[in-house]
Each structure stands twice: as structure tokens, then as C-alpha cells.
Amino acid sequence: MAIQDYIESGILEAYVIGAASADEVKELLYLKAQYPEINTALQQLEADMERVAQHMAIKPPPGTWDKIEQEINGLILREDTEADTFEQKRDRGDYKRHKAGSQYIEVEAESTYMRLHKNWKWVFWTVFALAKVFLVCSIYFYLENRQAQENIKELKTELHQLKK
Amino acid sequence: MSARLLAKTRDDDRLLSVRSLYDRYGAMLLGYLFEIVQDKDVAEQYLVEVFNDAAKTPAGYSQGGLNTLSQLQQLARKKLAPYYQTVKDCAVEPANAGSATTQNNKYLSQMTPQQQHVFCGLHYHGKSITVLAIELQKAEDDIRKILKESFTLIRKANGHTGLY
User: Fold this and answer.
1) Residues B70 and A49: beta-carbon distance below 8 Å
2) pTM tops 0.95
3) A–B interface: beta-carbon pairs under 8 A
4) What's the CATH code, domain B3-85?
5) Contact A17 B26 (CB under 8 A)
6) pLDDT tens across A82-127, in order?
7) What is the distance between the alpha carbons of residues A42 and B103, in angstroms, rounded to a whole number?
8) Residue A63 CB-density burial (10 A; 0-12 exposed, 13-18 middle, 19+ buried)
9) Which of A94, A115, A124, B47 is the most exposed place for a label (fewest CB within 10 A)?
10) Structural fold of domain B88-157
């Protein structure tokens, strides 16, 4: 297609007015880089649109900028707060790893270790000590029981001999 | 320089960038929004929202592609998407006199009803070329041609020739 035909097709106008499809935009940006006349035509169309906008312009009321500024300051504050909170959590180690460029924070850690509160240490020590006590007791009573069984067995043998 | 100071400088620059956009395009954008919503308070409310959105990426409005005004108008069209269904089609016909976008618009008043329908549909009502082609029972290429004719009239109204 000849460039002049392309310019006359109305695609440039559709682009400036925001009605061009994604493929048309892609093609236009490519041709714009290749052909200066397309760039010139686009600049003129944009100037036309700006003149239309200037003709219909309405001066904003005095407090409008204050509203915008207030909203932007709120936005900046939210962003800063979110950034600070993230950094604090990262410093505390709440986030294990955060891949660069990723929008997601890895919540499930890959480590095979488990983090527990320090109070659990005393619970584990108590359970461990009790287990040892029970083990010793078990062995003691087992041996006592075995000794008693042997004694009974001996007494039965003696009783049996006495009866004879 | 500390990270906090850098962030503060960045935030100040962002606010200044938006203020610069507001000073240059605020009135034009308010006029554009008012032509669609026909209510100054509602138009101002949308203006605040558009500049808040622009504040998220103010640097993006001074880079290649579309010019800044067209980008801001596209942002406004996105914001107005839910509003379009309630806006009447614009045409300088007795039945529609006084409808959205026709009042005091010297550019629109020079267009034929069909050219107005296409230009308004795309520029003020966020319609696509496909939708307009169905509405007017024409090929999409014909809609682009009609749009081009509208731009030629705009240029003539500005005292320029239709040639690029």
C-alpha cells in the first residue's frame, strides 16, 4: 500500500481518537518510524484535536487542584506505608524469599525446618524428662516384677518338695 | 542520600509532573468531560479521578506514542465507560438540539449528521469503529473515511487546508 493511500485511509484519525485496533496501532507505529510523512500527519491531527479541546476548554474551579493533590498525597502515603510494612516484615524474616520482578510473595517456605515459639522449648524439655522418668520406672518395675516371679517360682518349688 | 529522602524527592517530582499536566491540560480535559456528562460537578469529579490515575504513571505521559492530551482523553474514556449508556447520541438536529456535545461546538456544527454521528460516537461516546459500522450499516473502511472527512472539516474551521 502506498503511504499516501495509508494516510488517506483514515487509520491515522482513528489512532488519534483512540479507536484503532491493537494491530492497527502496531502497524502504524512501525510505519511512523519508517516514514516521516506519517509522523508529520499524526502531529497535525494531534494539533487539530488539541485545538478542538482548547475551543471547548472550561477552567476548572479553584479547589479542583487541591482535591487532586489531596488524593495524590493519600496515594503516595499509602504506597510509602505499604513499602515500609513490607520492608519491616522482610527484615523480621516474615517473608522467606521474594523473587525479583515477581508480583507474588512466597508464603510457603521451601526450608524443611519449622519455626516455633520459644515457650515450646520448656514443654519439650518437660515431656522429655517425664519420658525418661517413665522409662526408668518401667525398667525398675519390670525387674522387680521379674524378681518377684522368680521368688514365687522358687517358693512353689520348695513347697512342692515339702509336700513330698 | 538516604532511601527515605530519595523517595521524598521522587514523590515531589511526581506531584510536580501531575501539576504540570493539570496546568496544561486540566481545562481542556474538563471541557471534554463536560461535553459528555453535561454536569460541571460530575465532570470535575471525573477530572480528579483522571489525574489521580495519571499520578500513578506521570512519566508515561511524556513518552512516545500518542500525545499527552490524547492519552489523558483515553484515560477519561475508560473512566467514563459506565457513563456512556446514559448519554444521548449527539447530532445537531432539532430533535436533539441541546443534547450532549453539540452546544457551542463550532466544529460539530459544520459536520453532516453522519459525520457528527461518527466523530461523536468515537470521540465522546467511546464507541468502536465496528459498532459504528453496524449502526450505520457501512463497512469499517467507510467509517474511517467519514472520520477523516470530519477531521478535514475541523482543520478547515481552523483556517488550514485539508492537505498534510
Assistant:
1) yes
2) no
3) 142
4) 1.10.1740
5) no
6) 666 656 665 665 555 555 555 555 555 556 777 778 888 899 999 9
7) 28
8) exposed
9) A115
10) Arc Repressor Mutant, subunit A (1.10.10)
